[in-house]
Amino acid sequence: MIRADIHLHTSFSSDCDEEMENVIQAGIDRGLDIMCFTEHMDKDYPIEGQFILDCEAYRSRYLELCDKYREKITLLWGVELGLLPWLADWYGSYVNQYPFDFIIGSVHNPKNVDPYYPEYFEGRSEEEAYREYFTESLACLKAFSDFDAIGHMDYVVRYGPNKNKEYSYKKYSDYIDPILKIIVEKGIALEVNSKGYQANLGEPNPCRDIVKRYKELGGEIVTIGSDAHTAEHVAYNFDRVEALLLECGFKYHAVFTGRVPKYYPLG
Ligand SMILES: [Zn+2]
Ligand SMILES: [Zn+2]
Asked: What is the distance between the alpha carbons of residues 180 and 260, in angstroms, rounded to a whole number?
């Protein structure tokens, strides 16, 4: 059983109202041993002031609850950065300003529009929009790679007009392979994000064939997260994620502490 959920949001993220303590309680109830909070920090998000993290307040609440729950669960302190190609220097110094355990690099705003909003898909085909997402992801990764795991690599598919009905790794492999090759080369983990199940994709983000391809290319480091924004979604469908990873040939998943991975057996 997977006993660590290392992609979690609480009220310190601007799209989340859940109290940190409720999230911790849900993790304990579900038998988790480790949880890592990864609040959003998206500098230059198109809606001003959104997704700007108050790291001081976040840190102090975390330390308080860490102490309160130390007998029951290990709590880790991370961040999810919203990548944009021109933010390399800014994020480069940001990641060294705070003692993060774990840093997820995610692309939320290719060309400064979040696919979460329908306007991202307006006036063009879904295929074009998906291609742009992967092209921009590659540009972000080439500009900046000082993070530990790439978050929900096919995030765009959650919001496409047809979601994943006309989507496959194969169809976009020319766009996806270069991303996977860079993360393998740089030793960046591939995150398997179970929110894809919540979005009714029947798969995590990224999809099974991308996870398989990462392994084929020599990738060995996978992290697992629910990306929960409410307590009820903590460790969501982790049994399915575990089965998928075993099927793809992975025997361990990684948990980062002080940005160093430690491996835990699957199955
Ligand atoms: Zn995200
Ligand atoms: Zn997230």
From this structure: 20
Neighbours of ion ligand 1 (CB under 5 A): 106
Helices (H) and strands (E) in the chain, counts: 8, 9
In angstroms, the CA 206 to CA 227 distance is: 13
- CATH number, residue 217: 3.20.20.140
Q: Give me ligand 2 centre to Cα 80, in Å.
A: 6
- Find the ligand nearest to 107 CA: 1
- Note down the domain range covering 200: 4-265
Kindly identify the ligand whose nearest atom is closest to the C-alpha of 227: 2
Q: Closest-lying ligand to the alpha carbon of 7?
A: 2
Q: Indicate yes or no: pTM above 0.85.
A: yes
Residue located via tokens 């903590």: 234
SS3 224: strand
Find the 80 Cα to ligand 1 centroid distance in Å: 7
Which listed ligand is nearest to 156 at the C-alpha?
Answer: 1
- Return the biggest CA–CA distance within the chain: 54
Domains of the chain: total: 1
**What is the Cα Rg of the chain in Å?**
17
Distance 198 CA to ligand 2 centre (A): 13
3-state secondary structure of 22: helix
Q: What is the DSSP letter of 179?
A: H
The pLDDT tens digits of the residues spanning 200-237 come to 999 999 999 999 999 999 999 999 999 999 999 999 99
